[in-house]
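Sample entry (453 residues):
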Amino acid sequence: MEVKNKKVVILGAARSGMAAVSLLHQLGALVFVSDIAPRYDKIKELEILEGLRIPYEFGEHSDKIYNADFIVLSPGIPLTSKVVQGILAREIPIYSEVEVASWFCKSKMIAITGSNGKTTTTTLLGEMLKLELPKVIVAGNIGAPLSGQVLNSLSSSWASVEISSFQLETIDSFHPNVAVILNLAPNHLDWYVNYEDYIKAKLRILKNLDEDDHIVYNADDLLLGERLKECKAKKLRFSLQNAQVDAYTKNNYLYINGHKVIDIDRVLLKGPHNYMNALAAGLAARCADITYDSMAKVLTTFKSIEHRLEYVTTVAGIHFINDSKATTIEALNVALRSFATPIILIAGGKDKGSDFSKVNDLIKNNVRAVVLIGMAKDKIAKCWQNLNPIHFADSLSEAIENAFHLAKKGDTVLLSPACASFDMFTDFEDRGKKYKEYVHKLKIEYENKYVQK
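Predicted structure, serialized as tokens:
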């Protein structure tokens, strides 16, 4: 789309919104930024906007937003909100940042979505692509907006892009060459009316696929398979249970298109969920003609991403793990199965409509004690109250101190919230970084007090 001299309103000045501001401003659009947050919460953004001489408003969404050829919507603003309904009533087009960025991406694109595993798969795939291609883009909901990279994209290369359901709600012409759907599980039920609406949002990734494209999907997810029957794209399936598909595990090996890629024991990322991610990334990589040798090389060197079962440090023989990215019950389920040692679990935050009873058996069998924080702590405590000791904390730092005192040598203190972070933090990254900061502070205090110099 030609955007020069188009009047574009950026609704929401968070990370993706500011990336869209920069892109559209460089392309000659007449940008206006509107954010409900107060000015004092947006000091950095104000400096950028004033430096570029871009008009803005903070603390409100005034009628100025309706003077637009189209609007770029933050994924944090629901379509059901009053401001969005006002825009729709005036028939002003609304697009997500990733939709706008895709207009200017020269590289072929692999778009990855699903309820769990998106960031790991997107990053893993990106590393595979980088071994053989120039200027590979790894972006999207992963934390690096696509808008910030598309002007450097090459037609001879590829982009690995993580896409959330929120971003998919407002796509129009967004058309990846390869779409990857890892799984479907109830999520964001605080946002969507029901699970069906959430599924429909996820499946919008198929909107513009045709016979020349590929869809990579989880054959073990029966609901997903049923929903993809009418999809026109070429289907590529991966599975941990069925060796009659395109990518699978057999005799302790990962196979892709019948090719024995690597012994599972050599894969640095451990656990069935990560083997699924590896199979999905491998199938997508083959669509970009990446060799099996490159896949194997990445799988033997790639460690977990930040905030996903990330080892932080050990204090007094107690291991601290940062799993802040675990914002769903399914992700918590994976985390609780990942350690042989007893767990002191720190959980809680903003509830997404989750059924916390789904992990009751794991809480009873794998967890020594639970420390709860955030808005959802009472709901979670009600589910787990008869399983193991429950403790409460008013802050993350207090939760870490409590967990440390509850733990015994050899135990694992695990931050795996199973909730969103927005009640106490900017996002899951902010929560994870503060967790690591507080843990390292705890270690220094402990060593200064007890460890002889």
